[in-house]
Design brief:
five-stranded mixed β-sheet, 19 strands, elongated, 240 residues, mainly beta, 2% helix
Length: 240
Amino acid sequence: NFSGEFPAHLVKSFSRIIIQGNHYSSITAFEDIELSVCNIKLNDFNYEALVPLLPNIVVDTLIPVNYASQNPTLGLDTILVTEPSIITIEAGDNHPNTIYEWYHNNVLIDNATDSELELDITDGSSAGIYYCKMTNPDFPELDLRRNIVKINVDISVSTNDLSEKQVTIFPNPSSGFISIEAPFEIHEAAYQILSMEGRVIRNGILREKSEINVNNLECGSFLFRVNTKDNSSVQRFIKI
């Protein structure tokens, strides 16, 4: 689990360097050293981070660098879209000559060949899993992959009425019960509690007291949605 920068320029008296299976994400250039083994596989290097070792990779030198099989770039991510939006996803590498192939639900996206993927999301057809495959002729042994981004689309989660008819939740944060107030009639209104990714966790009907027990929810942030015939409102609350 070592991470950060590996200071290769400080290595003077070793013949074998094996840092395979860590989380190093950058490295300095070697200076005046002869190595029989340099294994940096399964770290977090992208093409740009390997530039200091490019002379050793391109030229047949005394430092054989095994740099294949790096971990995916960037981290897993989940995005909830509740209103028409433009979302940009980064591949995690900007080294020249890199070839980018973006995928949506394992299907190649036509003409998506840049280091960033811009999505104009207006409906649920854009929901799903996105990732990027990368190759670069400067580093022929390494195929990179951008970690998965999951996009959940629930346009209906956004507030549909343009007035100031917003639900109020208190106390917020809460560890037990939350009370609901609204400037419109909510008795017998349907409600939902959703995760921040848009997954419905609970649904029910608001009664006269408009008080809901959230004690059994995990700690974290949630969305509370109220739907009536004429109004829809969503508020975020925190369970502690």
